Amino acid sequence: MRTTQQEEASPQELHGALDTQALEKIARRVRWLIISTVANSKAGHIGGPLSAADMLVALYFNEMSIDPSQPHAPDRDRFILSKGHCSIGLYSVLALRGYFPVEELATFDHGGSRLQGHPDMKLTPGVDASTGSLGQGLSAGLGMAIGAKKLDRDFHTWVMLGDGESEEGQVWEAVISAPRFGVDNLTAIFDVNGLQQYGWPAQERDRFDRSEPLGHVDLEAVLTGFGWNVLTVDGNDFGQILSAFDQVRAWHGTSGKPTAIVSRTSKGQGISFTQGVFKWHNGVATPEQLAQARHELLGNDPEGELQ
Amino acid sequence: MRTTQQEEASPQELHGALDTQALEKIARRVRWLIISTVANSKAGHIGGPLSAADMLVALYFNEMSIDPSQPHAPDRDRFILSKGHCSIGLYSVLALRGYFPVEELATFDHGGSRLQGHPDMKLTPGVDASTGSLGQGLSAGLGMAIGAKKLDRDFHTWVMLGDGESEEGQVWEAVISAPRFGVDNLTAIFDVNGLQQYGWPAQERDRFDRSEPLGHVDLEAVLTGFGWNVLTVDGNDFGQILSAFDQVRAWHGTSGKPTAIVSRTSKGQGISFTQGVFKWHNGVATPEQLAQARHELLGNDPEGELQ
Amino acid sequence: MKAQRNVWGEEILSLARSDDRVLVLDADLATSTQAVQVATELPDSFVELGIAEANMVGVAFGLTTLGYRPWLSTFGVFLTCRALDQIRMMVSQTNAPVRLAGAYAGLLNGSSGKTHQDIQDLATMRAMPNMTVLVPADEFELAAMMPWIADHDGPVYVRVARDAVEPVFDADYRFSPGRVHVLRQGDDVTLVSTGVQTSRVIEAAGLLAEDGIEAKVVHVSSLKPIDEDGLVEAIGASPLVVTVEEHSVHAGLGGLVAEILSGRGGPRVVRHGLEDRWSESAPNDFLLDKYGLSPRRVADRVAQALGARSHGPRVTAG
Amino acid sequence: MKAQRNVWGEEILSLARSDDRVLVLDADLATSTQAVQVATELPDSFVELGIAEANMVGVAFGLTTLGYRPWLSTFGVFLTCRALDQIRMMVSQTNAPVRLAGAYAGLLNGSSGKTHQDIQDLATMRAMPNMTVLVPADEFELAAMMPWIADHDGPVYVRVARDAVEPVFDADYRFSPGRVHVLRQGDDVTLVSTGVQTSRVIEAAGLLAEDGIEAKVVHVSSLKPIDEDGLVEAIGASPLVVTVEEHSVHAGLGGLVAEILSGRGGPRVVRHGLEDRWSESAPNDFLLDKYGLSPRRVADRVAQALGARSHGPRVTAG
Ligand SMILES: Cc1ncc(C[n+]2csc(CCOP(=O)(O)OP(=O)(O)O)c2C)c(N)n1
Ligand SMILES: Cc1ncc(C[n+]2csc(CCOP(=O)(O)OP(=O)(O)O)c2C)c(N)n1
Ligand SMILES: [Mg+2]
Ligand SMILES: [Mg+2]
């Protein structure tokens, strides 16, 4: 394979750069950027970005081999946000990580912005695949993983999916075919936050509660049955997240199988009034809600003054 | 619901009408009609219809509540051949069962025929859903089963899928959502005949052998994990088929779950030169091959002179 | 001034109350499409199916075999693109009475951007045998179409816009399939438009009038069936026709009008719509202006076409 | 006389031999599309993905990010209908160099019938930004297109017919994107055709000549991009244009030609193609005759159009 048209550069190795306390602090800032940016743009998703925030922070600040100054470095690890409506979570992490200025978040969703409503790889530095129509990201990641194997390239490809998204059949097409290719360089993170946009009513609660998208599915059994390595973590607990990453790294290049991380989280995690509330799938916080979120997330942390 | 526009008629109850020996005899005739009709039309599928023949015979001759003279009877059991390329298997059974003259099989695939290359519910008496683009039949069956529950109608809906077909994501969309609806009036038969049209090379055989479409999948574990009742049978053994049907009938209206029958069969089953040969996915037998098939299937059975 | 999606929510609820063949099938977007009104008020007429549009179309077909007439609730793009094969085989080829309510189709979808914009639905659905294709102008036209759709025996695709526009019709409007509406008279040019864009086109005609250009406005909301003679007659002796649509310039309303006129001789046709490119996420006004569908941009385009009738050599980009 | 699919199989094998960016991705139809030649001769350039077309498109996109230029092997209908949303977001919106080889598109698919016929692909792909849309006439034109496709930086949809036709070109043919080909001169009428139908149209022109009608034949194999001026010039002063295609009469080649001519004034256009209905499984000759694409039926249609230039009132059915 000719790779001459690609720039030659080495991404940074990060494993274990930060401890869980440092990661938690970053995650709180990310959550603040999420809710404040959406309020600023007057439209956007909240619950899904918040549930995924810790996982995104752990990946970008502690795990992936990346270099923000070289977003197209050929041997960087790849990340695909298959649940593309959670773009603001990814953008907030990319900004803090140095891919573009944090101030640019103020252009989110605006005309002419590099920060589209859904991730656009052609516009945003650090975005490895365009997403937005749900269910497609794992296929793209599988293509990258197959390509890496064919070219003997050593990077790892990470894909994050929603639990509602996993109702899409294409997810299972990718799940069924991936083990054929021995892609132990591919990890799918299922952000099982227990809610989708609307979904089914909960069985024994009032009509405004909703049931879990995959509540009736034994996800671990299913993924194992399809031939994947499976790990389960509390996806809002950095300790558990980092242990899972250790296992993924150990399996990379050795296990002969793709890995799934079943990441059990809460939708809207980290802000009292959004957590577990299906209506906060998307929404715009009032000034009072913003103030409360800010207090809960940043307290008196001056570095929180990021926007 | 208004159902006035539908004719009122009662289908026949069949359970246990025939013993396994009688069924085997019919199945041999069906196999002969399959290979001879395709030879006559000079195009068509062979392997998939042959693997499914016993299941189809058991359903139409011994299990389903149907009346060939009333193909639209509102309370008939429904059958959907999701793997629609196996139409000639279904047509042969429908013809022998009396839905239309056996002679009409000679028009298979011909211009203006009621017997299209893929099943067309608007043309062929006894065909409950149009299929041909793979992966869609289980969704249609789920719609029928949900509708029956809503309307308090007692019929059962059967859907047959291929193992290659089960690589289609839409199959899994239907599998994931069906348990939500408590459709114990729905049964999916997976005809796991071990081959698709082309598929993957077999690991340790020569390059003309192909591997099983779901060979790396623990299908029973997966279906159980998605919340289905699961039964496994040798789908070319009438004894096992009929026992499974007994269980399905016992679960109908009681189990609160849809049922999957994992029917393990051989592609091309019943004719020595087609069995297990992936190239016989489709094909036209030579006169010599036809003579041999006829001998193997019918011997001197005069009733075999059906076409 | 009411958004079509709100009208759709109210009307579908009232249809479901009076007609037990009506079911609403949702692919996890009830709160956007407003199917939520049926979900909360009439849960037995509501079937949630999750984020699985292909399966939803198959389930809808299955329900029609029992006499139901299901309406599908999701964004247009997740019907006409994500589930096109299912619509083709199970709905179009069987002529099943499934109602495809394509919400948020076109350019304007509340800043979701190009992944959620359906700018190909009219091309795709026009080429689909048995399909009726309706694109109402406003709340009144949509409301009037809905009982007709509910009673129609075959499949229907209907666009339901997200945001409100200045109404074109009023509560007295009566829907008649195929009919072409002349909404404004004018001898200099005929503007042919569809859907909520017609409201903006009428505004554009006002802008043109200020410059002394009198534009006729023809609204085509029933793309299929269409009264071809009615369209030809409506255009009359107009020296120039400009089609305007929230859709690709290829194969949509412009294609339809060109096809009809090209069989009849008749005036030169200029097609206006989304040029052959993808768009972005931004507020409506920004999008309409940047992508040429605001009244101002429409007016400018028409003035330009009237001024410069012959094109130089041109190869359209692939 | 060679079938396009066989030529495709041979050419893709030779491209894969010389260009390691070439990969063939198959959705379990390699034996039909002839991708099997790559699978057996050059297994490292072949990726089987099973019956999962949507996933295949995503995998193809992923591979392009590493410099690969994958060709997809399946029936056209399972690309342009089953995987349309994936093509839209992952291929068209990112302008990824994925090659969509739509086998068996159109009417003729070896008796598989309407579930396997793609009669909407030209409408759908024309309205897709960034997409190049090619429909070669014969073995020679397809072979000439393939190296061009292999080098093209964006996505390409190319129809590959199942069965052989009398060639229109020869081994000297050179492909140039957008170019329009005048294959026969004649003053009475211009027939515009695409794909393998052009071969049958040339035969139809011969039939017309026997009746004293001289038809010009224009072949459009590059629907996008297209040299619009070239098309207008090719048609020249012809009093009547009849478009002929193995595709719905709506929004395909006929739509394209009508769109171009309608911007220029010019002659009356009659569009000929599949009337707005689904077809059936039957041998090719039966299908061509019944559905109006045989040389005889094309010739009759043209004669009729020349005889009766004005239509009575007509509402096309929905
Ligand atoms: C194919 C497709 N269908 C529907 C949508 C609209 N949609 C956006 S987000 C969403 C719910 C997603 O739920 P989940 O995957 O659980 O995400 P999270 O809870 O993390 O927000 C839906 C239905 C879409 N973007 N794509
Ligand atoms: C969506 C779709 N993709 C591809 C095909 C072409 N096709 C027809 S049969 C077949 C193989 C099916 O294999 P399997 O489901 O195992 O059927 P069986 O072995 O019973 O014949 C394929 C790929 C199709 N009909 N539909
Ligand atoms: Mg969720
Ligand atoms: Mg099989």
Automatic annotation (TrEMBL), chains A, B:
<comment type="similarity">
    <text>Belongs to the transketolase family.</text>
</comment>
<dbReference type="InterPro" id="IPR029061">
    <property type="entry name" value="THDP-binding"/>
</dbReference>
<keyword id="KW-0786">Thiamine pyrophosphate</keyword>
<feature type="domain" description="Transketolase N-terminal">
    <location>
        <begin position="25"/>
        <end position="303"/>
    </location>
</feature>
<dbReference type="GO" id="GO:0000287">
    <property type="term" value="F:magnesium ion binding"/>
</dbReference>
<dbReference type="InterPro" id="IPR005474">
    <property type="entry name" value="Transketolase_N"/>
</dbReference>
<protein>
    <submittedName>
        <fullName>Transketolase</fullName>
    </submittedName>
</protein>
<dbReference type="Pfam" id="PF00456">
    <property type="entry name" value="Transketolase_N"/>
</dbReference>
UniProtKB/TrEMBL annotation, chains C, D:
<dbReference type="Pfam" id="PF02780">
    <property type="entry name" value="Transketolase_C"/>
</dbReference>
<dbReference type="InterPro" id="IPR009014">
    <property type="entry name" value="Transketo_C/PFOR_II"/>
</dbReference>
<dbReference type="InterPro" id="IPR051157">
    <property type="entry name" value="PDH/Transketolase"/>
</dbReference>
<feature type="domain" description="Transketolase-like pyrimidine-binding">
    <location>
        <begin position="2"/>
        <end position="168"/>
    </location>
</feature>
<dbReference type="InterPro" id="IPR029061">
    <property type="entry name" value="THDP-binding"/>
</dbReference>
<dbReference type="InterPro" id="IPR033248">
    <property type="entry name" value="Transketolase_C"/>
</dbReference>
<dbReference type="Pfam" id="PF02779">
    <property type="entry name" value="Transket_pyr"/>
</dbReference>
<dbReference type="InterPro" id="IPR005475">
    <property type="entry name" value="Transketolase-like_Pyr-bd"/>
</dbReference>
<comment type="similarity">
    <text>Belongs to the transketolase family.</text>
</comment>
<protein>
    <submittedName>
        <fullName>Transketolase subunit B</fullName>
    </submittedName>
</protein>
<keyword id="KW-0786">Thiamine pyrophosphate</keyword>
<dbReference type="GO" id="GO:0000287">
    <property type="term" value="F:magnesium ion binding"/>
</dbReference>
